Amino acid sequence: MTSVPTAVHDEQHIAAQARPPVTMSGPDFPFPYDDFLAHPAGLGAVPPAEHGTEVAIVGGGLSGIVAAYELLAMGLRPVVYEADRIGGRLRTVGFDGCDPELTAEMGAMRFPPSSTAFWHYADLAGLTSSPFPNPLAPATPSTVVDLKGETHYATSVEDLPEVYHQVMHAWNACLEEGADFSAMQRALRERDVPEIRRIWSALVERLDNQTFYGFLCDSPAFRSFRHREIFGQVGFGTGGWDTDFPNSILEILRVVYTGADDDHRSIDGGSRQLPLRLWEKAPDKPVHWPRGTSLASLHEGGSPRPAVTGLHRTAGNRITVTDTTGDIRSYKAVVFTAQSWMLLSKIACDDALFPIDHWTAMERTHYMASSKLFVPVDRPFWRDRDPRTGRDVMSMTLTDRMTRGTYLLEQGPDRPAAICLSYTWSDDSLKWLPLSAHERMEVMLGSLAEIYPGVDIRKHVIGNPVTVSWENEPYFMGAFKANLPGHYRYQRRLFTHFVQDTLPADRRGLFLAGDDISWTAGWAEGAVQTALNAVWGVMHHLGGATDPLNPGPGDRYDELAPVLLPED
């Protein structure tokens, strides 16, 4: 996910952090996914006559694997199709010839406490986590901010020059005055649905057509261009924001309201372990299947089916799936979790799959580009002290140079470590696209040499770089969805598609999921939440129901449905 500024850094924020965090169900659909998952009644049941029914899951990323795991637990038989590898954008890779425990996160790498549904599954899979070294975070020894050739070293926000404090206070004032920040955070934390809906309905109607940058410009607190420029290049939290300036301000508000940029943690050993472990894990209390049945055991050779090449509606309101081997299978229900653009390009589809306004919404989806490059190094040399200054010789770095954000990742003082030399988005990412991994590394090392002229990073590099440009990945074509102004109606159509009772019978049975269907694209939490929506949809479609003591997202839909803006 792109970087998001922390909303406040004062005593009020410190006090808020002592309370339970808000959750990323957010203001659009404030359903308590964490309570739903924790309830002893479970997520629901299908009629015994449906036990063993095959349900296709297209995409083996986190959303697809969570949906498959829960449908297996209900007694259904998920058939997972995956074009590349299990994990999707939870992509953890190693470095050739290096310690296998040294890894790089090419996609999702930091997860906030507010991702409560995500952490439910991380705990279920037995994963552990550690604080992520964001700029100025407690886990980060030091941070360097380098703008326009001026370099500032800081171990806390108090070490930064006064202008950065002015920008910080301007952002706080902008949020409070323009978006009722404190009132919304309080309502989300207390799960006060009427208050959430009151505040958010007014904001959606007022701000749907507003860009992030326009929102800043409309605030008296940000009347200074210099402040807006610094905010765009550095921000507060995980880095700068200017690549997001053209996007809808509603996208930004969802993230800051839910504390999605606070107290990030990384998954020890890599985030891809989560979908891999769920693939192998047998549900504790399976229905229909013998104990010990897992997703892996239900698939020949323990591997998913290959890429889907066709989706069509056929007689009996069934959905027929064709894969790259030419195999053709028909299903009562299908969950599609790949990025929705795949339906427009890589997969042969017929118009009957969705209502026409849903196709329009998919066509209008705006994906952000994103790139990363990591190098393995012999040790965390950045903790060495410069004898002249007494400072760390290198720091987590935010800059207006090509690298933009550089992260230092370690496993202990005497163990190999990794540097994310550059993490960029949008136009900054596209600048890297024509370059090979080694060409990228050379440019990045050159930029960092300007900031750290006495540090020879190259002598510590022990292996080849690894890189990704998500916009160039054939099964993704972008890193994550980011709505443009005016896109709220399109996102609402896609998110609410799991509730299909009002659709014609020949438009039901195919369910969309994945973080781009959620209100918080780019966050793993959105992938999990939409998977749970799809699970409810499949269960309901097959005649099942939730326990009355634990109503699901579809059961509470009328109460919680997202704001409906006029279409005329």
Describe the SSE topology.
Blueprint: H1 11-18, H2 33-38, E1 54-58, H3 62-73, E2 77-81, E3 92-94, E4 103-105, H4 116-124, E5 129-131, E6 143-147, E7 150-154, H5 162-179, H6 181-190, H7 193-207, H8 212-217, H9 225-233, H10 249-257, E8 265-267, H11 273-280, E9 308-314, E10 318-323, E11 328-331, E12 333-336, H12 342-345, E13 348-349, H13 356-364, E14 367-368, E15 370-377, E16 396-399, E17 405-409, E18 417-425, H14 426-430, H15 437-451, E19 466-469, E20 480-481, H16 488-495, E21 510-512, H17 524-541, H18 557-560
Parallel strand pairs: 1-2, 1-12, 6-16, 9-13, 12-21
Antiparallel strand pairs: 3-4, 5-8, 6-7, 9-10, 10-11, 14-20, 15-18, 15-19, 16-17, 17-18
Helix pairs in contact: 3-11, 3-17, 5-9, 6-7, 13-16
Task: Describe the overall structure.
The strands form six sheets. A seven-stranded mixed sheet has the order 7-6-16-17-18-15-19. Strands 2-1-12-21 form a four-stranded parallel sheet, with helices on one face. The protein has helices spanning 11-18, 33-38, 62-73, 116-124, 162-179, 181-190, 193-207, 212-217, 225-233, 249-257, 273-280, 342-345, 356-364, 426-430, 437-451, 488-495, 524-541, 557-560, and strands spanning 54-58, 77-81, 92-94, 103-105, 129-131, 143-147, 150-154, 265-267, 308-314, 318-323, 328-331, 333-336, 348-349, 367-368, 370-377, 396-399, 405-409, 417-425, 466-469, 480-481, 510-512. β3 and β4 form a beta hairpin. Helix content is 30%, strand content 16%. α3 runs parallel beside α17 (524-541), α5 packs across α9 and α13 crosses α16. By secondary structure, it is α/β, with parallel strands linked by helices.
